[in-house]
């Protein structure tokens, strides 16, 4: 019995330490207009992960509606050129997005497998996973080779939610370091800023 208790305590401590260490890896890169953006290095990749956090005067249902409308979403997603739903099956969806890039960098496109789940808090969690081979390559675009991200929406009051947008990707091809470094800050910041503006203007 004592051995079991020790094992449980040790496992709990190790889990807490792991979570604490992971949290400490995030470094604040921007704190402006009520939006905080953090970045962290990823082992085995030269591209950083990012996490953006903002509070929006809206309900989880309103945020969900804005995300599920492809036309509306493209208007507030950073550098979105085109967004369309390829397939929808219950809580699963497959979407295709074209991403504008500054000259002379070639534009990118990405295919995402999106899964959604309701949370006990009344909010929801969406997981985004890149599936680059889901459709054939498109001429004029470089396919994002890897993408992992989440959207977590948590209600704070009856009409206020916290939105956390987190992602890391391998853009494929060659991307200048200055663009890669700016993108991991600009993407979450501008996306959340535009999402908030869209949600609160309705």
Protein architecture, described:
- The chain has one domain: START domain (Alpha-D-Glucose-1,6-Bisphosphate, Chain A, domain 4, 2-Layer Sandwich), CATH 3.30.530.
- With 202 residues, it is an alpha+beta fold.
- Mean pLDDT is 89; it is low at 4-23.
- The chain is built from 4 helices and 10 strands.
- A hairpin with a 2-residue loop joins strand 4 and strand 5 (92-99).
- The longest helix has 24 residues, at 2-25.
Summary tags:
202 residues; alpha+beta; 10 strands; 32% helix
Q: State the share of residues found in helices, binned by percent.
A: 25-40%
Instruction: Enter the CATH topology name.
Output: Alpha-D-Glucose-1,6-Bisphosphate, Chain A, domain 4
* CATH C-level: Alpha Beta
Count of DSSP E strands?
A: 10
- Cα-to-Cα separation, first versus last residue: 58 Å
Please, what is the CATH homologous superfamily?
Answer: START domain
Pfam families: START (PF01852)
GO cellular component, one term: cytoplasm
Organism: Pseudomonas duriflava
Signal peptide: 1-23
